[in-house]
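Q&A log
Question type: sequence-to-structure
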Amino acid sequence: MNQTPSAKIGSVLIVGAGIAGMQSALDLANAGFKVYLTEQSENIGGVMAQLDKTFPTNDCSTCMISPRLIEVAGHPNIETLTRSRVTGIQGEPGHFQVDLLREPRFVKEAVCTGCGECVTVCPIEIPADFNLGLNRRKAIYRHFPQAVPAAFAIDRRGTSPCKAACPAHISVQGYVALIAQGKFEEALALIRQENPLPFICGYVCTHPCEEGCLRGEGDEPLAIRDLKRFVADYERLSGPINTPKKKGNKTEKVAVIGSGPAGLTCAHYLALEGYAVEIFEALPVAGGMLAVGIPAYRLPREVVQREIQAIENLGVTIHLNAPIGPAHPLESLREEGFKAVFIGVGAHQGMRLNIEGEELAGIVSGVDFLRRTALGNPQPLGDRVAVIGGGNVAIDSVRTALRLGSKEGLILYRRTREEMPAYAEEIEEALEEGVIIHFLTAPVRFLGDGSGKVKAVECLRMKLGEPDGSGRRKPIPIPGSEFRIEVDGVVTAISQLPVINSLNLPPTVQVSRMGTLTVNRLTLQSDLPWIFAGGDAVSGPATVIEAVAAGKKAAVSIDRYSKGEDLEFGREKVFDLARPEISGVPPIRRFKPQRTDPGLRRTHFEEVVGVMTEEEAREEATRCLACGICSECYQCLEVCKPGAIDHTMKAEEISLEVGAVILSPGFEIFDARLKGEYGYGRYPNVLTGLEFERVLSASGPFLGHIQRPSDGREPRKIAWIQCVGSRDASIHQDYCSSVCCMAASKQAVIAKEHSALIESTIFYIDLRAQGKGFDRYVEQAQIRHGVRYVRSSISRVAENPKTHNLILSYIDEANQFQDEEFDLVVLSVGMVPHAESKALVRTLKVETDRFGFCQNLSLNSIGTSRPGIFVGGVFQNPKDIPETVTQASGAAGETAALLSEVRGTRIKELVFPEERSVAGEEPRIGVLICHQSRTNVADDSGISVEPGYSRLLFPPDP
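Response status: OK
Response body:
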């Protein structure tokens, strides 16, 4: 690369890679300048790539633009930066520093071969923007086969709210999308990537994901937990557990104390990393609170055992009846060769009420009551049982009491139902079973029968005051409201504590005043580096999914600790939440699970809630709004042989030194919904001119067959309405868009060429056919193709609701009011500046006119208000393709003149081998392998290709 002491820079930034940007880029690159061609879209080509034919020659637009695309892509001195926008500029003509932000493509351009396998497995479909929403495309896509760059791209709007709300951050949208496609095994495998207890969570998860579901703002959230349970149950019915593959076997051992959800999860992920994991459980059964704290009617024991078996299949050893404490000190685990210890003990100790009479017989804590029942040693409490509390343990306790034979179950709760922390569905099921809830009721003492057994609870009525620390309104006693409730037994279920003291912790490990372990919030590491803790042991009584999240977090930390890596680096999760527009989403009824008969279910411990059918699951999954667009199902990763897909890509900040800038950001079409009288957006058979171009195109949504969007029927009568959003002062668009008249004539002619049966009518105010041969084109449209031109003023377009035909009401040249019916209406909408232009001109400090087009302060049509920045194409004012190309070359010429003294200073010098005579040499045959197919050329041809050698011959693009 040659250098020069000049202050000017021999490179140019071109903003916008439509036909104008490409023309300027090629002119400058061929003239000896380095060109940075930026484009906010995924591909270059602009609107011209969307056209069917070009006016006035009616040549194939793709055929015309493709050579330009290829030339730009292959030019050594043009660097194309897609998904990029300008964020800042400083400097002066000849030497600018421009800042860009390049959004991630999530596909490596240099690696992607364009095979399209990713598209076949992507479960997400959205309206195809290149086809103006007339059909649908996948979340991973390429706009058209000839697109440049040829690599695919992934659309992501951000993180779906359901994933962000889930403590374990499962790709909820991903597995829901897979369920909708009937890919149940893949859905379950995706869940297991972040949660090794999907079956358990399908029964008892508190489903915070549903609280985040935006569908709930329109009707009801998706039944996400039921969908999770369905795919887990599908695996149970279809065969053995699909155990994930381990990464290998390590020599390090890790001890886990407690086999609840936190301990099981930590063990699962460490085992996958290859560690030898041993779990020490004090109880005679594994599962912790899953096995002894949640009744079997809510969480069947075989479900818990199945999940535990899957973890044991990874090589995890579980020691039952093996408490860590005085007999087996925690510190001795270190001596036994364990590299690290994770403490995941549950909250198995019930909190006391500390009121008079609490020591009476017949009063038991909820966790003790449930544990004894689960272990086969139930404790019936009599005919009338009162449970004190409003959480899940309280609801579980009263429903368990009924199943153990109690005739009447009461709940005493000091707030109202709105403040109850128990699951809403649990409360509903309890009420169905006959449980009576006394709200705004607080016990003040227990009364005995004289023999040491409880016989009554003395209570006070309460009222709610201001919110307390929990965010719920604080209950306040009402003086003089005392009353008694006769009972045979009482269960206290106000809260629980983890059993920490029995562990005999080293003094270095801190315990909070709430009796929980103090650890680093991000890493779960204690002050003693080899001890980690999570779940109830740290948070106090929480949910299963929160314990799963803690176990997974601890596993990452222990793995890093074992490797000597930084435990905190990159761990903080910040989500950019997706927020789609949901105002027009039609309501769809949410799935409601079947429950067994309340009278029967209170007599046994069989499960209460039924599972979805396959049909119900797929139907419910289709309610998903695909908030994030890409669902992060990762199916594309499975099929991408070159490994081109990278879901971790981040936005890239780029700083460039350039001598000049050319602005060619192109245009957008006028939003025809602003002219409501034409029915666009309400009537499916009213299209814009650009939409009709895609209808005509062989690569379009209907493969070139002209049909109506409403019913797919081929139209016979098509009307074009001119000057929609152009020459209209009522909407501040009182400029002519220049190209609409001839574009409509071209479309009418092409439509007749598609089908001679089509009758084409153009309604116009006046025809502006100001180019060479344009008048002749209109004459030929009338004479040769039978296109009818009607000078008129359209008042409205109305739809026949039965046929979806369209009635045009207009005043003709004779000032007569007419109604005429058509099958299809095409609106010749005007050009407006591209949306990106507003931010662009603010950043570059370039002035625009009142319409948003670039302001020219002199007769120089390619200059702007800022020296060193030029303009080309429609951003200067509306114009057709030939004029656009001409102006783009003019902008390139002005730029070259400004930078003439530094021409050739930034370009790549191509080095070619010296020519020599090969006369008399033995002939040699070379095979050129296409970049797009080099991964499978050997398979297709049957030729044996040596991979190492072929990579030397055909290295990846830089």
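Response note: The longest helix spans residues 544-563.
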